[in-house]
C-alpha cells in the first residue's frame, strides 16, 4: 500500500464508488461476498487498491495543508511539484496555538519579537502525493489556504 486503508466509515461513505471500482474489476456482489468469505486476503487487497486510488485522487487536488501544534503552526502551499511553507513559532511558552486564545494572541503579536516566522520551499517532484500524504499523516489538515494567503499578504506589504 502506498497510503493507508480507508476506515470502515470512509468505505461506507464511498460505497457507490467502491461498487463501481469492483465492477471495473469484473466483481459483482455475489463474487464480492464469496471473496470476503472464502478468500479474505484477496478482498483485503481489493480494499487496499481502492484506498490507494481514493487517497491518490484526493491528494492530487490538495493545494494547502495546515498543521497546528501548541507552539508551532506549519502552513503549506502546494503548487505543482513545489511546496512553499511558513513555520510560525511562538517564543512564549504559555501560548497555545491549539486554542482560539492562542490564535487571537498570534494575530495581535504577529510582528513582535515573540513570534518567529520562517519561510521555506521544497521540490517534491519525486513523489508529490507521497510527500503531501506524509504531512497529512503527521497531523496536517487539508485547508483552503486562508491562513497561508493572509500571512503571505501580511509579509509582502
TrEMBL record:
One Pfam family linked to the record: DUF6495
Protein name: Histidyl-tRNA synthetase
Native source species: Flavobacterium profundi
